[in-house]
Amino acid sequence: MKSFTVNNLKENILLSKYVLNKYQNLSRNVFFKALRNKDIKVNNKRVSCDLNLNNLDRVEIYISDELIYNLPKKIDVIYEDENILIVFKPQGILSNEEDKSKESLDYEPTLEDLVQKQFGKFYICHRLDRNTAGLVIFSKNLMVYDLMSDAFKNSKVNKNYMACVYGILNKKHDILNQYIMLDKKNGYSKIYDSPINGAQNVITEYNVLNENKTSNISILDIKIHTGKTHQIRAQLKSINHPIIGDSKYGKNEINKKFRKYRQLLVAYKYSFNFEQDSLLSYLNNLIISLPEKYIRNILNVEI
Q1: What is the DSSP letter of 243?
Q2: pTM of whole model > 0.85?
Q3: Treating both helix axes as pointing N-terminal to C-terminal, what angle do 28-36 and 15-22 enclose, rounded to 10 degrees?
Q4: What is the pLDDT of residues 242-288, one digit of tens each?
Q5: Phi, psi angles (nearest 5°) of residue 248
Q6: Where are the domains of the chain?
Q7: What is the CATH number of domain 2-68?
Q8: How far apart, in whole angstroms, are the C-alpha atoms of residue 245 and residue 263?
């Protein structure tokens, strides 16, 4: 069950619109079925039809988390050994949550929760953005967690992404060496071409894999040499080739044109560079790649 108090309304809004905006993974069919079944309360009264909400209205929704957040029935394992587990994170799911208690009524289940429920007490080693799909690494104990977390911080993990961007790039290969500053109030990262106070250096390398001049889209293989918040998305916007479906750094008219509302970005390949005496040095001989079917399902556009 989820409950919340309506606030900050400038005008009345339909219950359906408010709820479906708040829980964007919840399908309209599931919502209206719950409404017909009187599984929604407004100000402690069960309702069966759509109605206007006002500020301070109290809403309770008796729908399971699995349906509210459209959670997968199981998490797909891509690689596993005695130390680590690598799984596929679908779009729309938070990697983990550090700011809210699991007892909170507005707590949203995360990939970490789902993995721990399915496999046991494993520890997430890094994050992907909510609407970025791809490979996420978990450790099976705290010692391995420390080693893997340190590897991510110190560029011992090589990370490749694939993205579908708008436009045909003049340079088929380039290394974007810029500076980024995150505004913590709105979660927006801004790119600068030269250093300024408070900005951090970001380096993103790309190769054009494919392009369609008729549709005006390109598929890129991207390697990040640094790992900052929204780095890929912000840097591609800065060169006027936003990722299709990106609501924060893309363009609404482009997203509407392709009917994509989650960024077409997937973390699809990892390789490692541990010291030879590290417990995890055996990973240096491996390249962990996401099977092609997952990539096709995410980058579902005509090329």
Answers
A1: B
A2: yes
A3: 130
A4: 999 999 999 999 999 999 999 999 999 999 999 999 999 999 999 99
A5: -90, -45
A6: 2-68, 161-265
A7: 3.10.290.10
A8: 4
